Amino acid sequence: MLLLLLLLLLLLLLLLLLLLLLLLLLLLLLLLLLLLLLPLLHQQQLLLLLLLLLLQQQLLLLLLLLLLLLQQHLLLLLLLQQLLLLLLLLLLLLLLLLLLLLLLLLLLLLLLLLLLLLLLLLLLLLLLLLLLLLILLLLQQLLLLLLLLLLLLLLLLLLLLLLLLLLLLLLLLLLLLLLLLLLLLLLLLLLLLLLLLLLLLLLLLLLLLLLLLLLLLLLLLLLLQQQLLLLLLLLLLLLLLLLLLLLLLLLPLLLLLLLLLLLLLLLLLLLLLRLLLLLLLLLLLLLLLLLLLLLILLLLLLLLFLLLLLLLILILLLLMLLLLLLLLLILLLLLLLLLHLLLLLLLLLLLLLLLLLLLLLLLLLLLLLLLLLLLLLLLLLLLLLLLLLLLLLLLLLLLLLLLLLLLLLLLLLLLLLLLLLLLLLLLLLLLLLLLLLRLLLLILILLLLLLVLILLLLLLLLLLLLLLLILLLLLLLLLLLLLLLLLLLLLLLLLLLLLLLLLLLLLLLLLLLLLLLLLLLLLLLLLLLLLLLLLLLLLLLLLLLLLLLLLLLLLLLLLLLLHLLLLLLLLLLLLLLGDFSEENTPWKFSSF
């Protein structure tokens, strides 16, 4: 902005210098017009005097008078030549001004591009802030929401400021285009006037050359005493003098036209100076507005800092007050914090996906397919594990049934043993009674019965031992089945952990890809900004070179103006010394 203001001030100074040069040129043209009009007052007397000398055949006086007139016109021709050179230098100055305007237009276009890039960055930041505001609004974080609202207000102020700058640059661009068109118009008018002046100058030079040639012939004929040819040459000389008089009459008209053109140029320059002054005032007002906006931004940043400080103090107070509650509810808070972080992470992922959806669509589809395949595999594994669990449960139920049956058998065997024991006791009692009664045959029978009962008891004991062994084997099988169940449960847990790890890895991959794409975008924007800054530096160097050229041109113009003033003073002295009135001539022509 300051650079643009300095360039506009430079353009204003150049226009002021051009205005001063045009004023000097206008004064010189007025002096030249006076110098042309003063001899034209004497042209009628000069022609009458030349005609009288021709009739009286005063040839020497006629030659002297013609040489004096030729000397005056040669000085006038030299003065016109200097004036033509001055107009050419003015034309070069206008061309340099046009080049400076073109460079300013390029600089304005680069500034417009920079502003558009900054606007794009601000819009992206605004979009991100709006999404964060939406997240915080969903999560009901009021203090953070207030902070983000302040940041959003800051960005909106910056955006408004950039829009004002953009409008002002567009206005300046239009004004410079108008100035460029006006300078082109003036350049065309000045070229036309230069062509006309050059044409008249060439005609005047040609007539003076013819006049000089006729004077030489007149001198030759005067030396040879050829009266008839001498009269013819004198008539031709009069005709050439009449043509020269016509050209001298046309030349003041051309100078008047040049004066009008210069006045028009001065008016246009004054108008452009007025527009540039208005534009400078607008730039100064915009700078003041920028300062005010910067002050507002500083105040808002201070308020934001104070709010952050207040937020930190409140958080510390809350931490001090809720320390006991945190000790009691730490598990619940951890769960809520994890949920909160997961929600924030998902929302950020959604934002990144919205920004780069076109680039990551195919990748997301592939990742989704992989996830589906993994889920299907895991589901199949889970189904297999569930089937195994069901089979193990069925085996456990069968084992339990077998155990129950074995227990029933054991109970039956125990009952049989008890019965046998009772029978043995009864037999023993009978034997005791028979011993007491001394019945030998009965005692033998009873002994046989007792042996049978003992054998049965042994057999039952063997069966009981066998059942106990079977029961132990079933218990071992049950323990093995329980171990298998535990192993299956551990496998299930491992599969779930693997699934979670895969999901986390996929999420990390997505995040890394999105971060890489965002970094690429930021690098591209930074490269564009660097290129624009390099172009600005090149334009500044060109402007400095152009300024040096303009200063050299102004020095040349000043030297030419001094030269032209010296020529005008010399012509004025000649006109003041050469008085052709009737009192100062040594002859009388009243009879004529």
TrEMBL record:
Q: Where does this chain mainly localize?
A: membrane
Keywords, alphabetical: Membrane, Transmembrane, Transmembrane helix
Q: Which GO terms describe its cellular component?
A: membrane
Q: Which InterPro entries match?
A: MetI-like
Q: How is this protein situated with respect to the membrane?
A: Multi-pass membrane protein
Annotated membrane-spanning segments are: 6-39, 46-70, 82-106, 113-136, 142-164, 171-193, 199-221, 228-248, 254-273, 280-305, 311-337, 344-370, 376-401, 408-433, 439-459, 466-489, 495-518, 525-548, 554-578
> What are the ABC transmembrane type-1 domain coordinates in residue numbering?
138-312
- Compartments reported by the entry: Membrane
Q: Name one GO biological process term.
A: transmembrane transport
Spell out the protein name for this chain.
ABC transmembrane type-1 domain-containing protein
